[in-house]
Structure formats: C-alpha cells, structure tokens
Amino acid sequence: MKRRQFVQLGAGLAASAAVIHPALAAAPAGDAILEAGVQAQQEAMRSGQLTAQALATRYLARIEAIDRAGPRLRSVIETNPDALAIAIERDRERKAGKLRGPLHGIPVLLKDNIATADRMSTSAGSLALDGVRAKKDAHIVALLREAGAVILGKTNLSEWANMRSTRSSSGWSGRGGQTRNPYALDRNTSGSSSGSGAAMAASLATLAVGTETDGSIVSPASTCGIVGIKPTLGLVSRSGIIPIAHSQDTAGPMTRTVADAALLLAALSGADAQDSATTDARVADYAAALRPDGLRGKRLGVARNFFGSNEQADAVIEKELALLAAQGAILVDVEVPNTDKYNETELAVLLHEFRPDLEAWLAAYAPHAPVKTMGDVIAFNVRHAQREMPHFGQEHLIAAQAKPGLEAREYKDALANNLRYSREEGIDKVMREHKLDALVAPTGGPAWLTDYVNGDHYGGSFSSPAAVAGYPHVTVPAGQVRGLPVGLSFVGGAWSEAALIGMAYAYEQASRRRRAPTYPATLKL
After folding, report:
1. What is the pLDDT of residue 458?
2. Fewest C-beta atoms under 10 Å: which of 240, 487, 491, 521?
3. Residues catalogued as catalytic
4. Which residues, other chains included, contact 320 with Cβ-Cβ below 8 Å and sequence gap of 6+?
5. pTM above 0.85, yes or no
C-alpha cells in the first residue's frame, strides 16, 4: 500500500544513549541503536549492520536488565514468545527483497488491553483475564503485522485502563504490579498507558501503542518525557481493544520522537468495517508534515486557563512559548470556554458505556474467558480481594454495573452536553474566534509520589477538552522540573493530526528537550 512505502524523514536522532543505572552492568553494550528511532534502525538493517532478529534480541535483553532486574520498572507485563520467530521471518523477507514498509522489522510494544491472537494474554491487567488469549487480533494489530512490525510484548497499565477505583494508583494492576517512573522510581508514571510510557522512556522497544479515554496517552507521555499522540476519534480503529467507552476511546502512538510517532500513526490509521466511527477516517501523509518550518506563521492559542496548577511546570512552558515565537509562531492568549460544563457528565457517559462495551468485547474476543459480564468481574475481585484489591477498591466497576442501558435519557442528555460544550462551544469556538491553528498548554504537572493511601494526585491536566471532543492532541517533551519531565501540548480540531505533527516536529527539532532517564531511586531535592 502506498502509505506504507518507505519515506525519507528529516528527523534528527537522539545522540546519546541512556545513562545506565549501577545495577545494569549486565546490560548489552552498544545500546545507542536502541535509543535511536525507526530511521536509524532501518538504515542499519539496510546496510547489513543490524538484523531484525538482533534488534529484537537486544531489546528483550534490555527488558530483562532494566524492567525485571536493575531498576525493575515493571513496564512490560509480558514478552511475546514468538517475537524472535517473527523477526527472523522479517529478515528472510528483507533478504528476498520484500519490504513491507517503514516498520519492517521494527519492534513494537502494545498496551495489554489490545487483543493479540497469539500466545500472549489480553487482560487489561486484571487477574480475571490472566492467561486468556484473544480469539482474534485487534484491527490495529493486524495492520502492524501487515506493516512488518515485530510485536515484542505487552505493557502494564492501570488496571481496566484506570476505570476501577476512585482512589487508584496509576500504573498498578493485579497482574503486573506497580509500574515505576524511570526518572525517579518512587514516582508515578501516570496512566493508564503507564507501561507504554515507561518502556519508551527506558528504550525497551522502538515504538509503543497506548490507548486513551481521557489523558491515558498524553499524561504518561508527558510524565515519562516522550511523545504521545491521541488521534481524532475514528482515525484509528478500536476493534479488539478492551474498552471503557466508545464515545472517547482511541489508540495512539507513544514514541521517543515525533517522526517515529508519525510513522506509527500512519500504520495504525484507516477505516475498519468493524468500527463504524472509522468509516470516514481522514488519513493524511503524516511523514510529509515533518518539516522544520512547521511553526512558521501558525497562530497558537495559549490556553491560559490550563496554567496555574504547578508553577514550576508553568515556568518551563513559558520559556518554550518564547521558542515557539522564535520559530515563527504567532501566540495569542486565550481561554478554552465551558470546560466546567462537562466535568460531571463526562464521567456519567463513561460509566454508562463501560458495562455494555466491555461485555461486547468479552463476547467477541474472549468468549472462553471465566468472566462474561461486569458483574462477573466484580465478583472475581471480591473472591480474590487479597491480590486484586490490596490498595484500592472497585467503585467505578460497581457504579458502571448499576447504570441503565444506552437508551436511557440521562445518558443521551449527558453525551449531548459533552459534545456541545467540548466541540462547538469549546475548542471549535475559541479556534474560530481567534483564527487559531492550534491550542498550546502544559500537558500536566511533573510526576507525583506513588501513594497507595491517597491515590493519584495529578496536579493539573490539559487532556479533557480534546478527549471529550474526540479531537487530536499531541504532547512533546518540553523540559524538566527538578529532573522530572513535563510536556507541551498541541491540540487542534477534528482530523488536524498532520498540522499538529508539523508544529510538534518543528518545536521538537528546535528544542531537543528529551533527556534519557538515569533511574534514581528518588529525587535529591
């Protein structure tokens, strides 16, 4: 397919490998290629200096050294026992002159709510689905296989994509334990794509896929110092992904560079007959958007009502605003209107959709699972409370179980309210009135201490407007607060991914703010 042809990227590569934790003496030497991205790895394979088998082998060794020994990030919940066999087959194809596209032989990690019809479980982190193998691939997994990617494993996540408890700890699951932040091991990764964020920061694969309902890609990307793209609802199929709510769920790229995210988004995007939201998916040439002058003449609305949650993060972003202006952007202070109008109704919609959407997934992808319904999951957690609920409960599951069906008037009214105030009287309104190309703001605050007593305390987030509207959101590393990463967000209207990628890429190339982690046990404050 044309969109999977090799493309020439102008992306710069990160020049240095991660600073290694003292416990990592056994880690393989020469890991700079593991920190590098798709373009460098493809060039090394093209020139014969590297094979897909060797690349996958080295990433698997790094997972053992960093994720399961050494710092013990617990970001990878399971490695694929077929990964090396897949890599060997990609090498055979390359030797025979059959190149599937830019991702040929490139290792990819998938969040463990994305169905794979192989020897790995698809569990959403729950012990209720431990050992349950999906009967078929999620649509995006089939696309990745077609594109030649090597599915390296599954990443840990906030169990049930953080829709279990009102007092949860992001990155914790019954099956995977607590994912730890590579920039300070006692701090949180945010979530729910926690493992994907930490694994990318630690260079445990070239690419990762996360999923988001509200913040679950962009927040862990920001706190782990990587790039995250939450696409327009309907650009990427949700078929086969364990859901929360069809009105907001989407998968998206989590990578170390904007160029890699653009390539991964191209592979994931497009119509799927099993997901009606994708019928009119507007796929663009994301690689062509990777231009260093992508900010020139762009009008950016600085969303001032999303500053103020963390003064240190604000200070980082204020410096980056000057850099945006230096790259030719026109900055306009604005406020995104009516963001308080859907605080409560957003949660109501998610709770209404969760039970029927989850039960439909179980019936289609795991009919052999020991749990068939939301009620079964709740009962399983009660029976296995010592392992499943040692730190927090399942209030959201219980609330979702009690909600009436999708024909209920309260659900329809809440959904209509959300779309009205997030779209036409929210993002669309401010962008139209100020003639904006995008909105920018801090993605969120720096990582907080993992706390099983009080649960998460995020410290602000810019995720909800785009999440509720179903609009695209890109976050890029913008600097650090006392060694903890913070991200700069670019948000636009529906189907504006290519434009946002162009702006994000130009900013990334001018700023180069990503710093590889050093895995300290705690911060020296």
Report:
1. 85
2. 521
3. 111, 192, 216
4. 478, 479, 488, 507, 511, 513
5. yes
